[in-house]
Amino acid sequence: MELTKIEQLLEKYFEATTTVTEEKALKTYFSKNDVPPHLKVYEPIFAQLIKAKNETFTRRVPLKSKNNLFKWMSVAAAIALLFGIYFLQTKNETLETEYTQEEIASAQEALKLLAFNFEKGSQQISHLQEFEKNTNKFLK
Amino acid sequence: MKQIEFINLVMPFKNKLFRLAKRLLISTEEAEDATQEILLKLWSKNNKIENYNNVEAFAMTMTKNFCLDRLKSKQAGNLKLVHSNYADENSSLQNHIEAKDSIDWVEKIMEDLPEQQKMVLQLRDVEEYDYDEIAAMLDMQPTAIRVALSRARKTVREKLLEKHSYGIN
């Protein structure tokens, strides 16, 4: 490009009246090696503008679809809660309605028997304690 | 909107968001944080995103607002300490020595411009947007953009010539 044309464009550039295409022309002109000495001063300006455009954003951004996940989680939680309440309520009434009086009585009988045998067991243990006391005497 | 669609939508301009953020915040780390924040915000709005006729301009405006807020909240704090190697405006001689070459020097000059001029310079001279597009992004009148841009360009030239006359390369 002619030198006078470049000088004119520079003039316009600093008044901010150049178009984007003219500014691009200036950038290409100043990125060449044969810039005359009196215009050398402007070289770094355009070099910096070109350099600035080469920077890139390289970080990976974690995009989670947390919106949907959250929705479904709350639906699941609501269902679980409903089930919980349902079972809690039904269980309270069952014992007397589901079994007859006889069945409950026999179950109580069985539990009493169990308790009696447990009692026997703990009496044996007290014998053992006595035995241990005496053996300790001899050992000491 | 699916994740892949979103990435394809954002891909063409995510670097531009980052560069604008970096122009304003200066530190690369902070600019990356800001860009990530903006992209996540956009993603969280992804149902409404199709309603915006220009997502790019919208994202640019978001970035601008986000960065200006960040600068404001840090002004009283320790932002200057984070990159003290740039913020030392008083001792210009030291800056002369620090700048390795003229290109770095131009960058340092740009760092000292007022925020509005920085943004205008970034959007026009680096990203090559039209005045109308910049007007939409920054919510400014085209004439005001021209004035700010001319001032920014002239300041860069002035400071550069100043340095040139010192004769330090």
Q: Would you report the number of β strands of chain A?
A: 0
Helix content of chain A: over 70%
Return the average pLDDT of chain A rounded to an integer.
86
Radius of gyration of chain B, in angstroms, nearest whole number: 18 Å
Q: Please give the radius of gyration of chain A in angstroms.
A: 47 Å
Tally the structural domains of chain A.
2
Beta content of chain B comes to: under 5%
How would you describe this protein?
The complex is a heterodimer of chains A (140) and B (169). Chain A has 140 residues and is mainly α. Chain A has 2 domains: 3-52, no CATH class; 79-104 and 112-139, no CATH class. Chain A is built from 5 helices and no strands. Chain A has helices at 3-14, 20-30, 43-52, 66-98, 101-139. Chain A is elongated and about 120 Å long. With 169 residues, chain B is mainly α. Chain B folds into 2 domains: 1-87, Rna Polymerase Sigma Factor, Chain: A (Orthogonal Bundle); 88-169, Winged helix-like DNA-binding domain superfamily/Winged helix DNA-binding domain (Arc Repressor Mutant, subunit A), CATH 1.10.10. Chain B is built from 10 helices and no strands. In chain B, α3 (55-75) packs across α9 (131-138), α7 (102-111) crosses α10 and α8 packs across α10. The longest helix of chain B has 25 residues, at 142-166. The termini of chain B are far apart. The model of chain B is unreliable at 87-91 (pLDDT under 50). The A-B interface holds A 13-17, 20, 23-24, 41-45, 47-49, 51-53, 55-57, 59, 61, 63, 65, 67 and B 3, 6-7, 14-15, 17-19, 22-23, 32, 35-36, 39-40, 43-44, 101-103, 105-107, 110, 122, 124-130, 146-147, 149-150, 153-154, 156-157, 160-161, 164.
Structure summarized in a few sentences:
Chain A is an all-alpha fold and 140 residues long. Chain A has helices spanning 3-14, 20-30, 43-52, 66-98, 101-139. Chain B folds into 2 domains: 1-87, RNA polymerase sigma factor, region 2, helix turn helix motif (Rna Polymerase Sigma Factor, Chain: A, Orthogonal Bundle), CATH 1.10.1740.10; 88-169, Arc Repressor Mutant, subunit A (Orthogonal Bundle), CATH 1.10.10.
